[in-house]
Amino acid sequence: MASLQMPMGKSSRRSALRLLGIERSEEIFPVLLEEVLALGHPRALVAEVNFETSEIKPVASLNCSRHLLQRFHSSLFAMETPLAQVLHSLQPARVHPRNRRSPDYYYYPLIYRNRTACWEAERVRGGKCIAVENFHSRLKLQLQPQVCGVCEMRAYAAMAVVEVKRGAKETDIVELRALLELANRYLSRLFKVEHYQNRMVDLETTITQMQTVMESMTDPVILTDPQHRVITQNKAAARYFQLPEEVSEGRVRAVELNNLLFSAALSSMAVSGTDSSRDMTLVDAIEGDEVLFEAVSAPSFAPDGRRTGMVTVLRDVTDLRRADEELRANYDKLRQAEEVVRQDRDRLNLVIENVGDPIIVCDRDAKIALLDPLAHELLGSRHGRSALHVRNQAKLDAYITKFTYSFSDRESAPIQLTHPGTLQEVEYDARSGKIYDERGMVAYTVTVLRDLTAVRRLEQLKLERRMLEMEKFAAAGRLAGTIAHEVNNPMEAIKNCIFLLTDQIKPEAAPVYDILKGETERVARIVRQMLGLYRNTDQVGNFDVNAVVEDTLLLFARQLDRAGVHVERELAALPQALGSADQIRQVLSNLVVNAKDSMSNGGVLRVRTRLVRKDQVRQYIMVSVADSGCGIAKNMVRTMFEPFVTTKGERGTGLGLWIVKGIIENHGGKLRVHSKVGQGTVFSISLPAAVQ
Amino acid sequence: MTKERGILMNRKCNILVVDDEPNVLLTYRLILQQQGYAACAAISSEEARTAIRDQEIDLLLCDLSLEKQESGFDVIEFARKKDPLMPVVLLTGYATPEANDRAQQLAIPVLFKPIDIKELLDMISELLKENYEQHEAAG
Q1: Whether B41 contacts B20, CB under 8 Å
Q2: Does B122 touch chain A (CB under 8 A)?
Q3: Is B9 within 8 Å of chain A by CB?
Q4: Which fold has domain A219-316?
Q5: Domains and CATH numbers, chain B
Q6: What tens digit of pLDDT does each residue of A353-381 get?
Q7: ipTM, 2 dp
Q8: Does the domain at residues A539-692 carry the CATH identifier 3.40.1160.10?
Q9: Of A658, A666, A692, whose CA–CA distance to A579 is shortest?
Q10: Cα A463 to the center of its chain, rounded Å
Q11: Measured between CA atoms, how close is B24 to chain A, in angstroms?
Q12: Which of A82, A23, A72, A67 lies closest to A47 in space, CA to CA?
């Protein structure tokens, strides 16, 4: 401003010195007004602009009435007033009132302006400092951003209004303008200093807050300069990187090592440029433990983009890693368990595939969930089902539905299905079980169909074989009967002849006669036994086995007594047996006589009866005849039930046990023998009890 | 004792043996005679009926199966018509249940061949003794 270069009068130098002595911006306006009045002007005031409310309001005045002050209370947008006009144009003006008697007013805008940019703007270079902007914009007030784009300083704007003394010359106005100019320059400078002062205080507060934040972090935080020298670190970091007051050898080494490791890590991370992280193991200088850290570093930049160093935060991941390892171990375990389950499943699948029976798995609603290939054959698949498939499915559905909603865990029932391949009716034994979920509800049912064809065939075969045996026995019986009958009459004559010759044999012929007699009697016995087999004289019906036992023992009581055999009987309460009492008597007689013959030196004959329940319906009567005789040799046991096998020499016919076996089998019973040479023999007979 | 066996009321008891086997018939007759009985033999039912009609018979010893389809029961019935109390012993090679039942109804003891001669002789003397006592009682 050229006007400022003009030589100053004595008073103006005094004013300048006075203004220069001011240290606070708010003291400028009162001093300025005093100096204005000192130039001989009667009144002056300063009105300040509030940019937020657009209000223009007097803040300082000298010799001004309230009425006058009220006149200058205005708005930034009241363009008709000289106040607003001057502010917008930023050009000082001397305003002559229309009324000649009224004094002139000189308006001077006081605004934050400077020829040179603020320090911050200078540092930033190219930044738009509001002071310079205002200095250059001589035409118009920049209303909107009256805030510095660089240092965020809020600019001030005010208006000095001076009532010009009467008869003032142009030189007076220049002098006034110079004063106001000077005051504004001082104000701008003060304002700037105060602003930086405030900013410094703010920064200090921020720094303190940041330090508190840093210290309160439990993780070590370290700030380093571009040369990786530590600028600052928090307490947590000091534990690892700073030597404590009292140092031991170990700690020094630990801290040195930590520092070495840390700078190495920083160097490598700095190369990568952006945020990076890496793991490192540090030694706790106090505890001596090794701690695993994850270091996260970020480069720090100055506002102008210069790199100022690095911020590194170390995170203790020892526990994390341990947890991670545990997690990994658990995961491995899980994988192994899964593998076992998978193997089990594969094995089960293999078993199912090889069972060779159709298997049907149904869900809780008895809907098919799974079929094995054999079941597929029976029930068909979605593509192509014949009427037979549907019929099989319907039969199976009925069974499975009934089972699913029943209370039983297992079920088995016969089921007839038609094999679609062979078109043959196959009898299956359906066996089902339930699988429950964790709430105890039926989740699945599994049904296995067992093909009974083979079993039935075997049963049929057994039955046929037994029928054949019985037929053979009957045929043998008939043959024996026929032979016996044919032999019977001639033998009857021979026997009678021998009887007639009894007293007529010469003494020397007596032994021959005895042989003739004995052998004939033997033939008679054989014939009698053979006929007994064929003689169907007795009735078939219900009879009491115990009574037959008692009868038989009574019949042989004297013989047994004479042979020195003691009889023990143990007879249980029995239901009636079905069959021929006479034939059973013949059986028992045979067995009792055999027992007696085996105990040539006496002994014990034990006869027992008891009832054996095979199931709800079938019951068997067991009769055992046990002796303490000589026993039967092993090789004899196999053949003793065949006809004409005897151990009794001339006295036996070899038919007894054959007949016994035949009779018992004809009754649907079984005959078992258990013998030990020298200890005795037990014959056990089981006969079906009559159904009551 | 053999000689005394056949004699009751001071006369020989007359026993009729009926069997279709000649040798069996002969030997029984001989045995009975040896035992002191008066024995006559019939080889067929026809002969038997003639003997029963013509002679005084004390006891009938009859085989069940005779020639052709003739049955011992026919002979027994014929004899019982003449003397309802006539003692009879039925001999048989093998018996059917029906035959057995019928014999039981008629209260006739059955002996199965081969026959124990001693048992037969005991039975004959027992029956004759019973019969004699019944006759005595009847007057």
Answers
A1: no
A2: no
A3: no
A4: Beta-Lactamase (3.30.450)
A5: 12-138 (3.40.50.2300)
A6: 777 788 888 998 888 888 888 888 888 87
A7: 0.84
A8: no
A9: A666
A10: 57
A11: 5
A12: A72
